Amino acid sequence: MSQPFTYAASGVDIDAGERAVTLMRSAVERTNRPEVVGGLGGFAGLFALDTAKYRAPLLASSTDGVGTKIALARQLDRHETVGIDLVAMVVDDLVACGAEPLFLQDYVACGRVVPERIAAIVTGIATGCTLAGAALVGGETAEHGDLMAPDDYDLAATAVGVVEADAVLGPERVREGDVVVAMASSGFHSNGYSLVRRVVAAAGLDLAATPAGLDRPLGDVLLEPTRIYALDCLALVAEFGVDAVHAFAHITGGGLAGNTARVVPDGLAAVLDRSTWALPAAVGLLEEHGVPRAESERAFNCGVGMVAAIAPDVADAVVGTLSSRGVPAWVAGTVRPRPAEGAAAELVGDYR
């Protein structure tokens, strides 16, 4: 043989991986909670759950990824915010049942480890964990040169949370007369990007340009990170209790009606009035280039990233609490008896 076989020559650079860990270490350590045992670099993340703090704790878990929004991040060579999207997708699913996010582990698969890029991604994950109050207790960066192109990567994460057994939120608590409070999204969040990217390409839209109706370049709008609602939702439960805050629905793939329907019990329907908010300009732009309204409302959140079903007597106070925390919120609808052939959630009226 002219030269020995090496792992690096086969497409796995251990030294680059170790440099990436060094670059991300301080960001990860900033997410630590008092319950975290040990530090970055162990074979497993350890978390000391204080069982004396709870009467009957249930552990909740959620796994998700970012999806094809990553392709847009690669296209623009901007990787600092997709980690926030990753965290949002899992912790806001956890809080939908009333669970407090405790810790998260990430998985980064890539064709080639570029330490600075991996560090930027994981720093974004750490930022998201801080926004959610969760610790980043570990993860994995895997270099898969035989499976992925050099600049390709994908992200996934699992988060674990805790909720008291008698405080689990969901359709069992929702009742006729409940008010549906909508919480504004920050943009497209992390859903619908296969459709978004196809429309952008087919219409020849310039990601560096600012189309009419938008206040910044299209690329900036599309890469806006997902709003993380976890601590805001938990604040509502802490302030008003589960007798008033009955359910949360995280608006992801399937749209506003599809996800709201998941927290509505048989016999009832959530009726949401479009006239209580404006359709985001970026969604309108895609509709101008061929996306039908019905498809927009199935693929995108259309301006609402989370909804809460709450007792009507606390509606104004809930909106006030969310607004004071920097989350635009409004009463968007009510829970009513469901017609025999009706859907569990429907949108009525026209956007203002």
TrEMBL record:
Pathway: Purine metabolism; IMP biosynthesis via de novo pathway; 5-amino-1-(5-phospho-D-ribosyl)imidazole from N(2)-formyl-N(1)-(5-phospho-D-ribosyl)glycinamide: step 2/2. The keyword Cytoplasm applies. Residues 175-340 form the PurM-like C-terminal domain. Transmembrane segments: none annotated. Pfam families: AIRS, AIRS_C. It is found in: Cytoplasm. Residues 59-163 form the PurM-like N-terminal domain. It catalyses: 2-formamido-N(1)-(5-O-phospho-beta-D-ribosyl)acetamidine + ATP = 5-amino-1-(5-phospho-beta-D-ribosyl)imidazole + ADP + phosphate + H(+). One of its GO terms (biological process) is 'de novo' IMP biosynthetic process. One of its GO terms (molecular function) is phosphoribosylformylglycinamidine cyclo-ligase activity. Its EC number is 6.3.3.1. It comes from the Bacteria. Its main location: cytoplasm. Belongs to the AIR synthase family. This is Phosphoribosylformylglycinamidine cyclo-ligase. It comes from Geodermatophilus sabuli.
